[in-house]
Design brief:
Three copies of one chain form a homotrimer. Chain A is an alpha/beta fold. The first copy, chain A, has ten helices and ten strands. Chain A has a single domain, classed as 2-enoyl-CoA Hydratase, Chain A, domain 1 (Alpha-Beta Complex). Helix content of chain A is 46%, strand content 16%. A seven-stranded mixed sheet of chain A has the order 1-2-3-4-5-7-10, with helices on both faces. In chain A, strands 6-8-9 form a three-stranded mixed sheet. In chain A, helix 1 runs parallel beside helix 3. The longest helix of chain A has 22 residues. The N and C termini of chain A lie far apart (54 Å). In chain A, 55% of the residues are buried. Chains in contact: A-B, A-C, B-C. At the A-B interface, helix 5, helix 7 and helix 8 of A face helix 5 and helix 10 of B.
Chain lengths: 269, 269, 269
């Protein structure tokens, strides 16, 4: 069975040969930059996978030589400028997609070969395992665009790598190669690209060889314990302040410089 | 002074030359697989060590070329099949033994040479320091047996290595060599086997050279802060659901395949 | 603009060439051991930096070939012997200084070249990023002095490196070289000393190139999420018990042996 939708703005495809579902991020010419349409399809795709009987494992990978290089920048001006747009983008579009992966009852593996940046890294963070090739690169370089990470997305990054690495990625806008990503816990394993398919097959075989109910229970248990360890969470007012940046001149300067391929001249006004 | 009990099903021995207590896991021919009797002795042993004046440090190691290769599989059919047996095994046998180590007021060091798997890894996780030889191996490959990790045991693993490594160990049933275990925070230090005794002596000397009250306070403080960071914990209903696997056919398939040395044919029914 | 105060007991200097503030730990002949006066100046310095407009980044480094080798031991006998002195030292002197750094709204980088020990390590732990040369060394070897770490200081260390490394540092009084400190998450990056200035310049340039409001928000967000993850914290009685060591003979033995350059003979009485 194969279900795949194609849009000019990129698409999420998925196929399943039970017990394994394979999800593909695809946005030709854009290193699979994730459009709003793709976030919506990703959510729907994982809701379907979660409801489909007979599946024991889902694998997410990217086409076109990348995992995903971030959000689709072309949508900024029309979809991500006002405070309400920004809130809706993060809370109504991204958060439900990431939640659908995190709450998918079966294990989800990110198979990463190439750029795993911004939204791509956020997807990888909510997967249960991350296998990467040695040519992969990781980061969230949004500091150059003049906006901060959204709280729920930051919480997933923090839960995976801890505060020191989260601050390093965010404050420096740092890109890490695969070796450093392994050192800092962003990925479970790094293999040469030539061995990637074999390593992924082995990983799939090991998971599928285990009891499927035990896998679901272990995923649920570890994720539940991690949620409990996050504590009470931000207040509503603190969450709301997350969108203050949308009203700033610096945000406009950052986006504008990005499109004009110039250095942003942030004024902090 | 030496106290040691011998049983056909393995035993826990301990001796003390104050200020150091040495605890030995021993189950000949079974890589020190931990029987119910051994869990009970381990609890009693650490209750005695905790009450004994003049001790400043306890070291746990294994005989017969291993730390401990897991639980004693031969006890599955008689002791770990019904839901009530499974609950009692984890809550009344294992949990109190692990708690006796974690709450032992003096530092406890796991000296690991060889297999440190399943229950052996769980013991190592609740020790305060883990020194390992380069030939040691680590894992919790219970996915092949068709049952999930118990909540308290998973919480100790999660607290030590974080979610990514906990999920990797549980979902893949992955065995890690000593280098990978060091990379992922499962052990504090890895030394060649030929240097193991010297490295352990040095470690003991450093701990014993410090103020004993300061050591007890530091252990208590770090462990208390770690407990507080776990948050409110699972509900009673969530804990109870941990034993659902005992009623499943897949659990029976997994155990049966293990004894028959066949591949389990999990059906997820 | 430059503000610097000089005292025989060491001093904290700071200068700013906006948008970067540079803070210097200096205590000649003492590897920048931090005196009470220096802790007070450090607090005032970061309160000023926090209030000064136009700054986007603060860098802390040490003079005299070290970051800071700990607290100023010469103050023990006059300032840190009674229970009330010890409490006041940690709660009224150190805690506010470390809090002023942690709560400084702009990113703070620890630029570490040489000894980063005791109070020096505590300063590094509350910075947002830690860049170190390959000749740096890290530790909190207070076990030889016979006293435990204060709760808030331990919480900052635990939040950075986790329980296994915190216990290793405290129970063994272990000094780690830069490579091990990197392996265990104590520092973000290690560079050869000859490349240190260039690496620091690059790091500063990357942070300053980002949106300043986004940097402040990201720092606040990650730190807030980390605080929430700490849970409810110790009770007042548990905090109060932190100062019990001041009444012990072993504390006096430890301090006395340190001054006499002998091995302390702890009695645990």
């Amino acid at each position: 069975m194969a279900q795949s939708e194609h849009h000019p703005g990129g698409s999420i495809g998925w196929t399943s040969v039970p017990p394994v579902a394979r999800v593909t991020l695809s946005h030709a010419g854009q290193l699979n930059a994730i459009s709003i349409q793709m976030w919506r399809e990703l959510r729907r795709c994982f809701e379907e996978i979660s409801a489909r009987p007979g599946l024991r494992l889902a694998v997410i990978s990217g086409q076109h030589g990348a995992f995903a290089a971030g959000a689709d920048i072309s949508e900024f001006s029309a979809q991500r400028m006002s405070r309400e747009q920004v809130r809706a983008y993060h809370e109504d579009i991204i958060a439900p997609a990431l939640r659908a992966i995190a709450h998918c009852p079966i294990p989800v593996v990110a198979a990463i070969d190439g750029a795993c940046i911004g939204g791509g890294l956020e997807i990888a963070c909510v997967c249960d395992l991350r296998l990467a090739t040695d040519r992969s690169r990781f980061g969230v370089p949004i500091n150059r665009l003049g906006f901060p990470m959204a709280p729920q997305e930051a919480a997933a990054l923090l839960g995976l790598v801890g505060g020191a690495t989260a601050l390093e990625l965010l404050l420096e806008g740092r890109l890490m190669d695969a070796e450093e990503a392994y050192d800092k816990g962003l990925v479970n394993r790094v293999v040469p690209q030539a061995l990637f398919d074999d390593a992924l097959d082995t990983l799939i075989r090991h998971i599928v060889a285990g009891g499927p109910a035990a896998a679901r229970r272990n995923k649920w248990l570890i994720r539940r314990l991690m949620e409990l360890a996050q504590g009470p969470g931000l207040t509503a007012a603190q969450k709301d302040a997350s969108w203050d940046f949308a009203d700033s001149q610096d945000y406009r300067r950052g986006i504008s410089a990005f499109f004009n391929k110039t250095r942003p001249d942030f004024q902090d006004d």
